[in-house]
Amino acid sequence: MISFSHAYKVFPNGYQGLRNVSFEIEKGEFVFLSGPSGAGKTTLFRLISGFDRPSSGEVNVLGTDVSSLTSSAIPYFRRRIGVIYQDFRLLRDRTVFENVAMPLMVRGDRHLAIERRVREVLEQVGLSFRLSNFPDEISGGEQQRVAIARALIHHPGVLVADEPTGNLDQDMSNEIFKLLEMVNAQGTTVFVATHDADLIRRKPYRVVRIHEGEVSA
Ligand SMILES: Nc1ncnc2c1ncn2[C@@H]1O[C@H](COP(=O)(O)OP(=O)(O)OP(=O)(O)O)[C@@H](O)[C@H]1O
Ligand SMILES: [Mg+2]
Description:
Strand order of the largest sheet: 6-7-8-3-9-10
Structural class: alpha/beta
Largest sheet: 6 strands, mixed
Low-confidence stretches: none
Number of strands: 10
Strand content: 25-35%
Bound molecules: adenosine-5'-triphosphate, magnesium ion
Radius of gyration: 17 Å
Mean pLDDT: 93
């Protein structure tokens, strides 16, 4: 489902963001990615979601060899992945509804189907009442939930979540985590980066650890 084999990421300035990374995640697994700030969590997620390619080695996601994706194949590949970015990446000039609907609009779904699915997923994240607000009109936690709704809307085979509960209070964080677990129960493979040692301790999930670009599973 997700497999790294001797993957390296070397940045243009020569810095090795990932070094000889090898690990596997099975279909349907729920896995944490844990490591200190600067360890390479976001770098690793960018390879999984097809935003970047490894400098050497192999990265395979959903049966696709990410290292050899052609530019024209990348958008199709990304449609099968859900990404919750550390910094949300909402479009400021679009409403909550439009932000969440975006993956389906890009895919060319019919308007009525989009409307139904957006309402459903916004209900799941508790934001039905924010449909027509713009990102700047809602709180940080609400923005985070919009980002989560957008990542879930197209039923991705793989969901990578970069600190998805980082900006939320304990209750909201628990709610969002339950949502990720529900998505996982429905068959999506979920990979969650977090600094939250307490969360990792409380949950039964496998942990992939990363430190200075090196992974120990
Ligand atoms: N484009 C780049 N060029 C050079 N170095 C980079 C680049 N992007 C990231 N890095 C470096 O690679 C390392 C890993 O960065 P990354 O963003 O993956 O860390 P992270 O584990 O996500 O950290 P955080 O928990 O703070 O989000 C850091 O030392 C960072 O400074
Ligand atoms: Mg990061």
